[in-house]
Amino acid sequence: MTQGSDVVGRVLRASTSGFDCGTRSSSINGNQNFGAFVTVPITDDQNQHAVGLIYAIRIDDDPLARELVMAANVDNNALLDHRENRMVPVEICVINVGYAQNGAYYYNLPPRPPMSLIEVRLMTSNEVCRFTEQTDFIRLVLNARDVKPDELLAAALIYASYAYPESERYDFMVRCGRRTAQLLSHDLKRLSHILSLISPPEPIS
Predict the structure, then answer these.
(1) What is the rounded distance in angstroms from the CA atom of residue 114 to the CA atom of residue 38?
(2) Backbone phi, then psi, for 71, in 5-degree steps?
(3) Is-contact 2 102, C-beta < 8 A?
């Protein structure tokens, strides 16, 4: 889990429901994953921050990448140079699931979107724990459009669980599972699918 120094990118476009940020491929690390919690200031004084979940990562088309794909034999040094040194653009798409104001978290869409070019960063473990103490964000994820909400919720819960001490992870997942069951009491098939996604795998005998 990140300690909060990881910058995800800078805002390209935004609305109150979510935003897209851009970076380059060499800046992507192991924490910037589907379901990761991120935060971005929405006021100049930084008293308000949007809280979001990464729901898509897109690598834009690149002419040199097309040439390398079509080449019969590609030198490994050329691949490394392309990945690490060329500024291959990456877009990271985020939906908002809450916001912070003066240190308190609210589980509604933020009152305004972030401005262009503002830095987006991963939330720290402590921030993730504080935000997920209340499970009201689950409602916003389940009702999100233009994303895969069930898969996103499962990924977010698994991601968040690693912010907690190992001894508390099971209780966290149970609490979130119960909240999901309340929200999806009318759709048992969907509920069963989500619970199967967050259940730990059976041990191999």
Answers:
(1) 13
(2) -70, 145
(3) no
- Tens of pLDDT, residues 136-192: 999 999 999 889 999 999 999 999 999 999 999 999 999 999 999 999 999 999 999
Q: HSE-up of 132 (CA within 13 Å, CB side)?
A: 33
Amino acid (1-letter code) at residue 70: M
Please give the sequence-ordered ranges of beta strands (E in DSSP) within the chain, or none if there are none. Answer: 7-15, 18-24, 37-41, 48-59, 89-101, 104-106, 119-122
CA nearest to 129, candidates 33, 191, 51, 34: 51
Report d(CA 33, CA 54) in Å as an integer.
7
| Torsion-angle region of 102 (φ positive above 0: left; ψ -120 to 50: alpha; else: beta) | left
DSSP string covering 166-186 = HHHHHHHHHHHHHHHHHHTTT
pTM: 0.85
CB 95 within 8 A of CB 17: yes
